[in-house]
């Protein structure tokens, strides 16, 4: 149940990609080790999916920012 408190503390502070990936990796490791009861495994799986969606959204946003920056560079007149 410690993971739910990690979720709350992460939500209260600034979101961090690396920290979120670490949470997903921890969930996967605990599932692979068989350290979760079945109902907790389903809950943790659902949480991992939410984390992965957050990561995907973050990466998509950053990719869009990079595309705009590159477009700006290629549209700039040469000096």
From TrEMBL:
<protein>
    <recommendedName>
        <fullName>Exodeoxyribonuclease 7 small subunit</fullName>
        <ecNumber>3.1.11.6</ecNumber>
    </recommendedName>
</protein>
<dbReference type="InterPro" id="IPR003761">
    <property type="entry name" value="Exonuc_VII_S"/>
</dbReference>
<comment type="subunit">
    <text>Heterooligomer composed of large and small subunits.</text>
</comment>
<keyword id="KW-0963">Cytoplasm</keyword>
<comment type="similarity">
    <text>Belongs to the XseB family.</text>
</comment>
<keyword id="KW-0269">Exonuclease</keyword>
<comment type="function">
    <text>Bidirectionally degrades single-stranded DNA into large acid-insoluble oligonucleotides, which are then degraded further into small acid-soluble oligonucleotides.</text>
</comment>
<dbReference type="GO" id="GO:0008855">
    <property type="term" value="F:exodeoxyribonuclease VII activity"/>
</dbReference>
<keyword id="KW-0378">Hydrolase</keyword>
<dbReference type="InterPro" id="IPR037004">
    <property type="entry name" value="Exonuc_VII_ssu_sf"/>
</dbReference>
<keyword id="KW-0540">Nuclease</keyword>
<dbReference type="Pfam" id="PF02609">
    <property type="entry name" value="Exonuc_VII_S"/>
</dbReference>
């Amino acid at each position: 149940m410690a993971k739910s408190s990690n979720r709350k503390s992460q939500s209260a502070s600034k979101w961090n990609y690396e920290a979120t990936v670490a949470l997903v990796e921890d969930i996967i490791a605990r599932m692979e080790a068989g350290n979760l009861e079945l109902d907790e495994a389903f809950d943790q799986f659902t949480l991992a999916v939410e984390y992965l969606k957050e990561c995907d959204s973050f990466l998509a946003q950053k990719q869009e920012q990079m595309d705009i920056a590159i477009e700006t560079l290629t549209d700039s007149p040469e000096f």
